[in-house]
Every structure is written in structure tokens, then in C-alpha cells.
Amino acid sequence: MLQTFLSSAHLRTFGNSAMDAHAREIIIETEKGVRLQGFHSCRSESKGLIVLLHGWEGSAHSAYLVQTARYFFDEGFDVFRLNLRDHGETHHLNEGIFFGTLIDETHMAVQKVAKLSSGKPVFILGFSLGGSFTLRMASIHEKKPISNVKLLCAINPPLDPYKATISIDRIAPIRKYFLKKWKRSLAKKQKIFPRKYDFTPELEMKSCMAITESLLRRFSDFSGAKDYFGRYTLVKGWLEEISVPVAIVMSMDDPFISLDDYFSMASSDNVRCIIQKNGGHCGYIDSAKLRSWYQPYFLEEFNRIIQGNGGF
Fold it and tell me: In the beta sheet, which residues pair with residue 80?
């Protein structure tokens, strides 16, 4: 639990950095008219581009994302921090609300972001729900390729989001954390589009599953939570669709994502699953500087790939 909460602690991003100084906002518009915000930190000379995807109710300014972006920028990479729909301060960009099934718009945005690499290697690093999006992008890469992508990395991705949501509701501190952030997000959306949305019922609810069921019933065509979550569950046969190298990092002590789904995965030459004993949810903090173990681990992997010595 300490690792989990420290991962988002702003103490990790105290002060300024070169990555922050070089960041510029970019609004990406997909072919379907969806607009997503991102922040591109570009060097005069770089090894490649790292695209970072935050977790549910996080943002491009979440501590774990900013701290990771700073680390890789200092190590010679360009970085792009993408906001998913209705995350960060982006509720005004699209009228429709966010759902975890919105893989198409996220994939299209990442395809456009990858072209900013100027032909250099592209690496994608997603956290939690952002990790789920990363795995889904890997599964459709063969049909809808992302230019120059060499490795997609997912940190604590929920393979079964229905089970993960139930687990979140069972752990009081985590449930309160997500409810507070989600309700704040819904209130922002309602204020911007008052004729479209009235989230009064949802703002009074006491669990994430209750809000999910209500939003699905009122604002979607899904029959319910099981139908909705089933659309982006990754535990049945999804490995067979992956044709690009993927690395998954999980911890045995993640408080709300079970390892059972990982142990039941079929093996694949393109997928490496790295299971750590400790790390919580997206933590893995192993130093007084509050850096995470996966940062130097993936730095070594990225450098090996760039030098032509990578591969599973």
C-alpha cells in the first residue's frame, strides 16, 4: 500500500527539470475528430521517442509519469506524455465522456505521436489502465502499425478490469481515492457541458462499480458492467494477436490486480512477463530519491534495442 500511494506522491516531482522546461503542449486530432492533449519534450539530439500513458484518473502530470519522463529525458530520449480523454484538464476537448473501451482514438493518437520521432526508435510505456491500452495497441499493431515502435511496456495493467474494479471497491483507502478523483472529473464535465450532462445521481454514489453501472445505463449502449468490461478484458487469447515485442511488469503485492490472470496466460515469444515480489501498484520505488526499479531496467532494454542487441 505504501508503494502504491508513493507512486503518485508529488514529492517525487519536487522542483524543476530539463524535461519540464522543454515540454510543449500539442493537441492531436484523430481522423474521427477526437482531440487529445499531450506534452512533447524534445531534445536537439535524441536516442528515440518514449510515449507515456497514465492510469485511470491520472494524467500527463501524475507523479509517476512525470518522474519517469524526467528520468528518460535526462538519459537522452524525447518523451511524449499523452492525456486520455477527460483526464487532466481536457474535459472541454470532447463532448463525449471517457470509457475504457476507447482504444481506437488512443491508438490513432499514438500513431500520430510516433511520427514525431523522425524515424528514430519509438517505445511505449503505459501504467495501469494506460498499460491496458498499451497491450491492446500491441494486439492490433499488425493491422494498424505504429511507425518505428520497437517495444511496448505495460506496468501493472489490469487484464480483467471487472475483477480489478471489484477489488478497488473492497479496499477502503483505494476506493475513496478513486471516487474522489472520478467525481471531481465528472463535476468538471458537467460544468462544461451542462445541457448534456447531469451527474447528480453518480456524485452521490459510494462505489466505483455503482457509478460505472449508472453511467453505462444512462450514457452508453452497453448492457451493463460485465458487457462493458468484457470488451477490453485481455485474459482470453489476446496473446495470439501480438506480433511486436511486449514487456509486462507486475508485482505480487499489487493490492487490487490479481496475478491469477497472468499465471493463466499462454506463453508467447513476443511477450515477456516480469513479476516482482514487491512494488505495489505502479510503485517499485527502491531508492531514497523515490525512483522506480523499472526505469533503469527499461533504460537498459531500450539501449540494447537501439544498439541492435535487443530482442526476447
Answer: 40, 51
Whole-number Å distance between alpha carbons of 122 and 120? 7
Range of the domain at 81: 2-160+236-306
Helical segments of the chain, H only: 2-6, 18-22, 63-74, 103-114, 129-139, 161-170, 172-192, 200-203, 208-219, 225-230, 260-263, 294-306
Candidates 195, 171, 200; CA nearest to 183 is: 200
Q: Do the Cβ atoms of 130 and 110 come closer than 8 Å? A: no
Instruction: Give the Cα-Cα-Cα angle 233, 237, 238 (nearest 5 degrees).
Output: 60
Q: Per residue in 114-172, pLDDT tens? A: 999 999 999 999 999 999 999 999 999 999 999 999 999 999 999 999 999 999 999 99
> Burial, 176: exposed, middle or buried (Cβ in 10 Å; 0-12, 13-18, 19+)?
exposed
Domain assignment present for 256 = yes
Burial class (CB in 10 A: 0-12, 13-18, 19+), 281: buried
Does the residue 292 lie in any domain? yes
Looking at the whole model, is its pTM more than 0.85? yes
Say how many domains are in the chain: 1
Burial 152-170, CB ≥16 within 10 A → b, else e: bbbbbbbbbbbbbbbbbbe
Q: How many CB atoms lie within 10 A of CB 126?
A: 29
Burial code (b: 16+ CB inside 10 Å, e: under 16) for 257-267 equals beeebeeebee
Please tell me the distance from the alpha carbon of residue 239 to that of residue 138, in angstroms, as a whole number: 9
